[in-house]
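Lecture 7 notes: from sequence to structure.
We start with the chain below.
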Amino acid sequence: RSQQRRTTSLACPRMHLRLLLAVALLASVALADDSCNNPCTASRCMCNGDYYDIGAIKGPTTDYVEISSDTNFWYYIQVINNGLPAANLPHCSWGDQTMTTGNAAGQQSKTQTPAACTALGLDQQANWAIDTTGAAQVITVTYTGGAAAQGRQRQTKLIITCDITKVGPVNGATDFQTSENPSLTYNFRVTHASACKNAPAPPGPSPPPSKSKVKVGWVLVGLLFGLTFVYFVGGMIFLKFRQDKSGREMVPHVEFWTSLPGLIKEGFRFTFSKIRGSEYQRF
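Predicted structure tokens for the same chain:
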């Protein structure tokens, strides 16, 4: 009967220990998640603890890039200095006069005459994401708030794949791949060093402070320590004042915790015996 009580007393703390280990594991996984400290600026953001600056993605002589590789449209994109200019863009005259400034991207038809330039997203509505799961790191910046159509607003995704050899200005005629998928979402793909970790930042002012964002992992870490505190301190208070325990008997499930070192040692002995192929003898 005493052996049965011992088995029952050990089962409960083992369940608690498994719960604490599960919370710790979830915390470590969540801390490793890719994330960016949104909201960010059009060209700068902190992702996974590192600052990224894509301000070097511009034309050889202008702050904007004219993307001419598409058959049907000219595209323009500018991520610095408050977006595309209100005037003096080749092939582009803004059709919606309420959206002539602050545009991160614009589109002009090559086939329709006359055709106005359409705003595809605002530089002040930038949302950053980072993906480190592939062979090369990818930064995606989504600019929302473009001209409305079909009851929705257009948006632009600037998708930058890390290539440490691609530095400096870009060539709009050859460096970009463009697509509209899904409808009213305009994707601009380019490879550039600015999407690489620890890439040198282009000349300019220091990155502005970004609002901190509490990661889920830290919440789980706090939960882990909170559960541990409640388990031990709450258990000791309960055993002291409700069951009149004192000394080491105030520790919740004291038999389990005193036997834990032996259980760990026995686990190592069992594991090593399997590795060596020898017979396991219970400790």
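Points to note: The helical segments are 2-31, 216-242, 254-276. Residues 1-10, 27-32 have pLDDT under 50 and may be disordered.
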